[in-house]
Amino acid sequence: MKEITVTVNGEQHTASVEARTLLVHFIRETLNLTGTHIGCDTSNCGACTILLDGKSVKSCTVLAVQANGKQIATVEGLAAGGELHPLQEGFKENHGLHCGFCTPGMLMRAVELLEKNPNPSEEEIRWGIAGNLCRCTGYNNIVKSIQYAAAKMRGDELPDTEPEFV
Amino acid sequence: MIPAPFDYAAPRTLEEAIALLQEHGDEAKVLAGGHSLIPMMKLRLATPEFLIDINGIPGLSYVKEEGGWLKIGALTREAELEESPIIRARYPIFADATKLIADPQVRNMGTIGGNIAHGDAANDHPAVMIALGAEIEITGAGGKRTVPIDEFFFGFYATALQPGEILTEIRVPVPPAGTGNAYHKLERKVGDYATAGVAVQLTLDNSGRCTAAGIGLTNVNPTPLRARRSEEALVGHVPNEERIALAAQYASEDCNPTSDLRGDEAYKRAMVGVLTRRMIRRAMERARS
Lengths: 166, 289
Prior knowledge:
- The complex is a heterodimer of chains A (166) and B (289).
- Chain A is α+β, with helices and mostly antiparallel strands.
- Chain A has 2 domains: 2-77, Ubiquitin-like (UB roll); 80-154, [2Fe-2S]-binding domain (DNA polymerase, domain 1).
- Chain A is built from 5 helices and 5 strands.
- Chain A has helices at residues 23-30, 86-93, 103-116, 122-128, 139-154; strands at residues 2-8, 11-17, 49-52, 55-58, 71-73.
- Chain A is globular, with a radius of gyration of 16 Å.
- The model of chain A has no long low-confidence stretch (mean pLDDT 96).
- With 289 residues, chain B is α+β, with helices and mostly antiparallel strands.
- Chain B has 3 domains: 7-52, Uridine Diphospho-n-acetylenolpyruvylglucosamine Reductase, domain 2 (2-Layer Sandwich); 63-173, 2-Layer Sandwich (Uridine Diphospho-n-acetylenolpyruvylglucosamine Reductase, domain 3), CATH 3.30.465; 179-288, Enolase-like, domain 1 (2-Layer Sandwich), CATH 3.30.390.50.
- Chain B contains 11 helices and 14 strands.
- Chain B has a 5-stranded antiparallel β-sheet.
- In chain B, a hairpin with a 2-residue loop joins strand 8 (153-155) and strand 9 (158-159).
- In chain B, helix 9 (228-234) runs antiparallel to helix 10 and helix 10 packs antiparallel against helix 11.
- The longest helix of chain B has 24 residues, at 265-288.
- The N and C termini of chain B lie far apart (50 Å).
- Chains A and B meet through strand 4 and helix 3 of A and helix 2 and helix 6 of B.
């Protein structure tokens, strides 16, 4: 067993883990933060996306020991002080989720996307979320949700939120 | 899916990592980005007894031009490569390739050194490195040695890396004026391995004659393949439509694709031809601009 210390959503945790423990299992089963989902378990779907030292990674393909000494952000930490993050608001306002399974991963991926590119084009958003699968085929509204959040974070006028059904 | 049990160490220096590799021999694997290794371990296709995590070793992640070489530290993430100002300004072929490697999250972890050291003909950097005439720096207990890219890949997952050695740097000769390069792979969906991929680098003189050519092929041979006859079809000639068609035909004839879910052999050969033609044209456009 290896002892690791990680800071998750601002709170420090120390725990003993097997070297083979995957980060997503540590987050869900040791820390009981089940907002991070396991979808494909093969680094394809992106449902398990979290931020590791600010970078979006697929936590099903990272070992918990690799996170030792690092900062982790999960979906549970997004709504600071109980107020929805602009991305969460964007998804809520634009019908950006249907079943919701991919949503935590989409949100965490989009956090880094907007941090690197505060004013992304539609194409940049689509490439940016290329590692996140939505099986409700909600991509159009997910893109709109991210555009809404980007506008809100820039302080621009908010785009129309009429959901698009195609 | 959970990997089989293994022991783990995160050394802080290259010397420590090499000592551990030597101590554990074949039972040890180096963990860099882990996005080839960990999936294989989860599927129990790889069951190393000891993982040596090199992510905490400083000084292995950089992109710089020095003494006529582009030097890339082995631990440089694909995302860092994608965002590097030097790469963006002067090496468009890396921008072509990294954009098509897996997806943004995987590129935040995956390293260029791992992509090459894995020895998988389906990975994208090997063909790019063949086109660019790269050298691989390997560090072991006895110090450093350099292996030309053409002597690096031996077979399926087999490379010139010996037990106890770590790939530490990739070096690409800074191309002369009049050089252009390009890479594209045909993939069924984002994140898939290539159905076929082609990397091309060409140097044209003032009269438009090709003075140097490098062409590498992805995932159409047991090892990353240099399309030698295609290169020879271009060097010394002005790459007109006839020459380009000849180079494309040779690449399509000289590769050895296997039929699988991505396509049958004939289809893959045809795609190698199409991509070779297109990448030669793109490299020429870039050489002229």
